[in-house]
Design goal:
It contains six helices and three strands; from the N terminus they run ααββαβααα. The protein is an alpha+beta fold. A three-stranded antiparallel beta sheet has the order 1-2-3. The longest helix is centred in the C-terminal third of the chain and has 17 residues. The two termini are 22 Å apart.
Length: 145
């Protein structure tokens, strides 16, 4: 028996697009400004209900705790995620803007590396944050396989 969980309305994927985020980051005056933008985006991310904060929904490879849940509706993938770290919550928004509401083909075709490069963030993230971000992306790609 399959249980359908209704995902809460998410502010990313349709209201905030990758194009919006790239434009916002390109107007930033430096790394600190980009960092603040990421944290501000993370503040808009809804907190997950504790019922979603289960061990089987945790992403391994992240230094911070990160939970990711998904549901497929009409061949489109919808994600909710959260973290206990402010900057990671912001990084999650960048990923959700790229993947939320997309088909498996769209998820797998999206050039996430070029997207991250256009944001000018990767060179400034610590190795553990960078690896955690990659772990979130990899988990989404595996789910959309």
């Amino acid at each position: 028996m399959t249980t359908t969980i209704t995902l809460p309305q998410h502010p990313f994927g349709s209201e905030i697009t990758t194009t919006d985020i790239i434009a916002q980051m390109q107007t930033a005056t430096g790394w600190e400004d980009r960092y603040r933008n990421v944290i501000q985006l993370g503040k808009k991310l809804p907190q997950l209900d504790d019922s979603y904060k289960q061990d089987q929904l945790k992403i391994s490879g992240c230094e911070s705790q990160v939970w990711l849940h998904h549901q497929v509706v009409n061949n489109h993938y919808y994600f909710i995620a959260d973290s206990d770290a402010r900057i990671v919550r912001g990084l999650i928004t960048l990923v959700l803007a790229a993947y939320n509401g997309k088909t498996a083909a769209e998820i797998n075709a999206f050039d996430i590396d070029a997207y991250f490069d256009s944001l000018g963030l990767m060179a400034h993230l610590s190795p553990s944050r960078s690896n955690g971000l990659k772990a979130i992306v990899e988990q989404i790609k595996q789910l959309a396989h």
